[in-house]
């Protein structure tokens, strides 16, 4: 293994550890948001976790992770800015995105990323969050 390959492997391992920590934050926060979709502290924690994952994925060149985390971050920012009221289907999609990010970050599970295409556009760019009727 060359020094560059060792460095890349170390970075990917760090990304996997970061993804594990941040997806735990996302899972807990999203479950709390399922009960109360307007909890500002949970929206902030989830948005920051998605943002951190996007940056970590970008650093190690995992484009699928960047795209999925970006879509999730956009959705959470829309909810923070009251442009989107999180419905159960949004929470379900965000939880699926969380699972997908963990699969992307786990080397043995990187194959079979069909769920990635459901969260991103055909060219791999993030799909825009769908605005739902605001309640309140």
TrEMBL record:
Keywords: Kinase, Phosphoprotein, Transferase, Two-component regulatory system. It is an enzyme of class 2 (transferase). It comes from the Bacteria. InterPro entries: Bact_Chemotaxis_CheA, HPT_dom_sf, Sig_transdc_His_kin_Hpt_dom. Its EC number is 2.7.13.3. This is Sensor histidine kinase/response regulator. PROSITE patterns: HPT. It holds the Pfam family Hpt. One of its GO terms (molecular function) is protein histidine kinase activity. PANTHER family: CHEMOTAXIS PROTEIN CHEA, SENSOR HISTIDINE KINASE CHEA. It comes from Pseudomonas fluorescens. Residues 115-136 are annotated as: Disordered. The gene is cheA_1. Residues 4-108 form the HPt domain. SMART domains: HPT. The modification Phosphohistidine is found at residue 51.
């Amino acid at each position: 293994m060359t020094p560059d390959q060792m460095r890349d492997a170390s970075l990917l391992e760090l990304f996997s550890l970061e993804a594990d920590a941040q997806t735990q934050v996302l899972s807990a926060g999203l479950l709390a948001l399922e009960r109360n979709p307007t909890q500002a502290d949970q929206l902030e924690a989830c948005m920051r976790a998605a943002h951190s994952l996007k940056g970590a994925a970008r650093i190690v060149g995992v484009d699928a992770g960047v795209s999925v985390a970006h879509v999730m971050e956009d959705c959470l920012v829309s909810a923070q800015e009251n442009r989107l009221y999180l419905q159960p289907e949004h929470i379900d999609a965000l939880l699926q995105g969380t699972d997908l990010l963990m699969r992307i970050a786990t080397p043995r599970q990187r194959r079979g990323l069909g769920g990635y295409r459901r969260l991103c556009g055909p060219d791999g760019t993030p799909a825009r969050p769908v605005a739902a009727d605001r309640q309140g």
